[in-house]
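Complex 363.
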Amino acid sequence: MGTVNIALKTFIENLGYEVVLGPKPTARTLKIGVKYSPEMVCLPFKITLGDMFGALENGAEMLLFIGSGNWSCRYGYYGRLQCSILRKLGYEFKTLFIGTQNLKSIATDLLEMHNKSWTSVIKCFLYAFNITYHKSKLVDLAEEYARDTRPYEAHEGASSNLLQKSLNTIENENSVLQLRSMKTKIENDFAQIERNGIRAPLRIQLVGESYCVIEPFVNFNITGYLGNHGVLVKPFLTSHRWLYYHTIRKDEDKDFSKKRAKKLAQRYWAYGTGGEDQVSIGYAIHAAHQGYDGIIHLMPFCCMPETAALPAFETIAKTYDIPFLNISLDEHTGTEGLYTRIEAFLDLLQWRRKKNLFGGRRL
Ligand code: SF4
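Predicted structure with iron/sulfur cluster bound:
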């Protein structure tokens, strides 16, 4: 999902294991996932199942799951169900479920598998944790610079190319010291991108279901698309923030915490029903307070929490007079249809900008 793989690969490799990544999600893996998934299960289940086929075909012996097993929506049984489907199809593999509730059992697994003393396991674990954090944070920063530079770039693709280059460098670096020193370089590199003179681009807040907001294959790279159309995009969640919140409950958004988001959302949505519904609602209200031009809500077709939360988003859009676009994604969603809807939404936002600029007079 997104760039989570960079951090996880680093973590597991530094524990002494070989990591076999599945292919990035593609039309082929989606097709395989759809074929073997229950029809009405949500889209992320189908895609991740397809990814698992890819990883097992590439020789993976163990599948790792994050957060699965302790959730109020279907995500709670994703892992177990996917394992059962794969085993019924004849695949043999071990599993590791990562979450705050079973850190102890993970440590015991490590001890057994490595046949080492506790001291060396702890030392190894701490180093892996430290370097993973620095890498993941730097990836997050590079992605943020790319999002914030894209609408201002003079040559389309400059930010995306630099981002890809930076991600490759970060991924290949295995020294905390070097990673620390790369921060300034990445910042300077993005600052040097030639600007197009735009001063006040449209600002859009992305909210919704985590996988749909973070994974570019599923959302048709909406962040890049909006950026290339001169929009400053702010996703409520990133790969880094998702990873650290759902593994060790560390909130990495320093500007607007999940706690604040949930508190703000309470008037419209008293508690979370699974996924990120309540947090998303809080971010939507925050975006309205911050004067954003619009909100885009991404969700998988038949996602239970996000479908239930839709009326709350619509109420917020009306109350705060902020345009809101809901996009439901499934395996049948196509690029043209999606981009056409987004373009129409952007036209509306531009029109509102002009209207407000000219005091509501007809242009
Ligand atoms: S949040 Fe929605 S899409 Fe994600 S696992 Fe839960 S029900 Fe499925």
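The mean pLDDT is 88.
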